[in-house]
Design brief:
The chain is α+β, with helices and mostly antiparallel strands and 179 residues long. Helices cover 30% and strands 25% of the residues. It contains six helices and 13 strands.
Length: 179
């Protein structure tokens, strides 16, 4: 799906993440602890290959607007905006039915119905996507950053939704065959 030196030069029209997004928000900067009402997702809960890892969790209590801004629901794209240059831009799709809360260095993206979040995650986790993110990252020693505003400018090809779903089904079957 993302073959070739520049997948944005495909037959599918290019579109930015921001054009596809219904909502883009940062998580909370409030400190987490070992107890609280909501599970608190941090950068270590996102793997380098685009999966959610809930083996090491913290917790937090939030309410009102602060909770609504930081809460994630099934289908949200999570983007790690601050990390080392090699790991900045780690991306996964939140695939749980239980609401959780994200830390401030994670960006939550909710998309409109033209795109599957897994398709965007696969694009950003492809070799091309990882290279693009490394080039975009601005940073100091040991830390790199890609703001939500910069992330929203990333262009990707937008095939029809049926083709996106076929791609995701194929990718899932390949993952199953690995095990």
């Amino acid at each position: 799906m993302f073959g070739g030196p520049d997948p944005t030069e495909s037959d599918c029209p290019p579109v930015t993440i921001g054009e596809l997004a219904a909502d883009i928000r940062y998580g909370t900067s409030k400190k987490a602890s070992d107890s609280g009402e909501f599970k608190y997702l941090r950068m270590n809960n996102m793997t380098d290959d685009g999966r959610l890892d809930l083996s090491d969790l913290k917790y937090i209590d939030l309410s009102g607007a602060e909770l609504e801004n930081a809460k994630v629901v099934r289908g949200d794209l999570l983007f790690n905006r601050t990390n080392s240059r090699e790991k900045v831009g780690k991306t996964c799709v939140f695939n749980k039915n239980e609401p959780m809360v994200i830390a401030g260095y994670i960006v939550r993206v909710r998309f409109d119905d033209r795109v599957e979040p897994g398709y965007v995650s696969a694009f950003l986790n492809s070799n091309y996507g990882k290279g693009l993110l490394r080039k975009m990252a601005k940073g100091a020693v040991g830390q790199a950053n890609i703001s939500a505003k910069e992330m929203a400018k990333i262009e990707l090809p937008l095939p029809p939704i049926e083709l996106q779903r076929s791609f995701l089904d194929f990718a899932a079957s390949v993952d199953k065959s690995k095990f």
